[in-house]
Amino acid sequence: MPGVPDISPTETWEALRADPEAVLIDVRTDAEWNFVGLPDLTGIGKQTLLVPWQLYPSMQVNGSFPDHLHKAGLTATHRLYFICRSGARSLAAGQAAQAAGFPQAFNVADGFEGPVDGEGHRGTVAGWKAAGLPWRQR
Questions:
Q1: pTM here?
Q2: Which residue among 33, 81, 94, 110 is least enclosed by CB atoms within 10 Å?
Q3: What is d(CA 98, CA 56) in angstroms, rounded to the nearest whole number?
């Protein structure tokens, strides 16, 4: 297995815009989607697929994760871009996707919010929000 490459949020946005087979999969929890916000792909005629990697509040790994990808109609031809808060869960999700027969998996580096800044806040240093890409509250 070649591994799951990191790709910047801006490169992800460009790939999603240019490639009809590209899909953004947000693997955060319901709580994060509801309280932190979501990538907004409506401007490019797409929707973010929401499939939690871990189930809130237990944070157990979602054993049905690959099934959700298949049920969403995804195939080996799709390029799958996984995003979480900062890039760790999305990497694990990408690895699981590859193991389940989705070879074109990418990890969105720094995730939706990225690392904390000097004042302990996320969303300002790196990641989807810091890159100025479209997002919305749920």
A1: 0.96
A2: 33
A3: 24
